[in-house]
Amino acid sequence: MRVVIADDEPLARERLRSLLAAQEGVDVVAEAGNGEQALHACAELQPDLVLLDIAMPGLDGLEAARHLASFEPRPAVVFCTAYDAHALSAFEAAAIDYLMKPVRAERLAAAIARARTFLAGRDGQPQDSGGQQARSMLCARLRGSLRLIPLDDIHYLQAEEKYVVVHHARGEDLIEESLKSLEEEFASRFIRIHRNCLVARHELVELRRGTGGQVQAVLRHGKQPLEVSRRCVATLKQELRHL
Q1: Are 81 and 101 in contact (CB under 8 A)?
Q2: What's the pLDDT at 155?
Q3: Within a 10 A sphere around the Cβ of 150, how many other Cβ atoms?
Q4: Do residues 177 and 149 make contact, with C-beta atoms less than 8 angstroms apart?
Q5: What is the pLDDT at residue 128?
Q6: Which helix (H) or strand (E) element contains residue 139?
Q7: Distance, CA of 89 to CA of 87 (rounded, Å)
Q8: Strand 171-175 with 163-168, pairing
Q9: Beta bridge partner(s), residue 158
Q10: Per-residue pLDDT at 124
Q11: Which end of the chain is more exposed for a tag (fewer CB within 10 A), N or C?
Q12: Model pTM?
């Protein structure tokens, strides 16, 4: 079992590494000091298990776990934290176990056993993300690495075959998520203008008619207007009245 340890406290990482050394068939392949480092390590190394602290600087453990839930193959996630107040949020983020610090050897062994069970049944099983809190970033995986894209930087999302193209302040990236699931998760941030396009509400400037009579959406940072389907025009006009 390949394991990544993510904790901003070096002593906590050292303790976990020592406990894991006593577990047969377990190999620590990377350590991380925050959630973003953990995601990069997981994208590159594809571990079986991630031991995640929750309270870390920058991207915390809960949001990192929400991103890990979309990884393929998806690693098992076990939270290791000094606070029991996060237990409900941890399981909503699809963690398989929740260990209190200082982590005891027998509890860690039980978590590893759970992880083995999870891994045995992982392939081919649909993943339910219901109940998870909304993310603050999207995660684009790029040949073994990744890029985290803050939602505030996104201009629009456009479906293209089996991918979604994220148009954002620093360029474009592909993500392997459906436009429908993104619309449901981020309904307060994005609005549909076409069957294949969601636009950030703060990017909408106006609607105008093109030379062929087609309604187009003008974006604050768009290089060119985007086509609006007839069925979305009324909703967009209503949205613009409240901006």
Answers
A1: yes
A2: 97
A3: 12
A4: no
A5: 46
A6: strand 137-142
A7: 6
A8: antiparallel
A9: 165, 197
A10: 43
A11: C
A12: 0.70
Q: What is the pLDDT of residue 126?
A: 43
List the chain residues with pLDDT less than 50. 124-131
Measured on CA atoms in the order 100, 57, 130, 39, is the torsion positive or negative? Answer: negative
Whether the CB-CB separation of 51 and 4 falls below 8 Å is answered with: yes
Nearest of 152, 233, 140, 224 to residue 188 by alpha carbon: 152
Query: What digits encode the pLDDT tens for the residues 139-149?
Result: 887 766 788 89
CA pair distance 129, 218, nearest whole angstrom: 33
- Strand partners for 197: 158, 194
Cis bond upstream, residue 47 (ω within 30): no
Q: Which of 42, 50, 28, 21 is nearest to 111 (CA)?
A: 50
* Closest to 83 measured CA to CA, from 56, 109, 112: 56
pLDDT at 129: 45
pLDDT of residue 48: 97
**How far apart are alpha carbons 80 and 65 in whole angstroms?**
12
CA distance 182 to 185: 5
The pLDDT, as a whole number, for residue 130 is 43
pLDDT tens digit sequence for 39-81: 999 999 999 999 999 999 999 999 999 899 888 889 999 999 8
Specify the residue for token string 């982590």. 103
- Residue 189 phi/psi, 5-degree rounding, is -105, -35
- Alpha carbon distances (Å) from 112 to 6, 33, 83, 84, 105: 16, 21, 21, 20, 11
